[in-house]
Design goal:
single chain, alpha/beta, D-Maltodextrin-Binding Protein, domain 2, 2 domains, 7 helices
């Protein structure tokens, strides 16, 4: 997930955005892909961790949200990876990466944590599930096959073309990721009283 701002916003990184938002409570706005979507939850997590008051504007998807940031109707957006060409063309500013590590696509851009904003990481990820009761040996075979497939150059290139990074994790690590993220987002949803329309 990438924190992206409109070109005219007078900030160059996430830290400066927090300073601006703190000095102007309620005057900035963020666009989101819609209530309960990962970009919306990332924006609310960012607000929670920074103590800022910013108005959220829900859209019907990430593309319309990004378009209004490009057009200046909203100040920033947490982008799931569709803004790359606009970042490179200077139509929007990349302020930070909302992941535990830097993006391989923008290695010079620091994470939010590197900018002093701890606990605001939220990645977009995809996983593979099998039915309950699948024998452990089948699970291990599936996991090994998927991990191997993700190392193939053609697969890695296809992921890169989509702005994604293929990372294989074992079943136990994936379960931990789900549990940890579930706790964080459940607490966030309750704290922010987020409801789906």
């Amino acid at each position: 997930m990438y924190l992206v701002a409109k070109p005219g916003l007078p900030v160059n990184n996430a830290k400066e955005l927090v300073v601006l938002a703190t000095a102007n409570p309620g005057k900035l706005s963020y666009a989101s892909a819609g209530a309960g979507t990962p970009p919306h939850l990332a924006a609310e997590l960012f607000k929670q961790k920074t103590g800022t008051f910013v108005t959220g504007i829900p859209y019907r998807g990430a593309a319309p949200a990004l378009q209004d940031v490009i057009g200046g109707q909203a100040d920033y957006v947490f982008d799931p990876g569709i803004a790359f060409p606009h970042i490179r063309a200077g139509r929007v500013k990349l302020l930070g990466v909302a992941s535990a590590k830097r993006s391989p696509f923008f290695p010079d851009v620091p994470t939010l944590a590197e900018q002093g904003i701890k606990g605001a990481e939220l990645d977009i990820w995809f996983g593979t599930w099998a039915p309950n009761g699948t024998p452990p040996e089948i699970m291990a075979r599936l996991n090994g096959g998927l991990a191997k497939a993700l190392t193939l150059p053609a697969v890695k290139q296809r992921f890169a073309d989509l702005g994604a990074e293929p990372i294989a994790v074992d079943t136990a690590e994936f379960r931990k990721l789900l549990a940890d993220e579930g706790k964080t987002l459940t607490a966030l949803i309750k704290d922010r009283k987020i409801i789906l329309d």
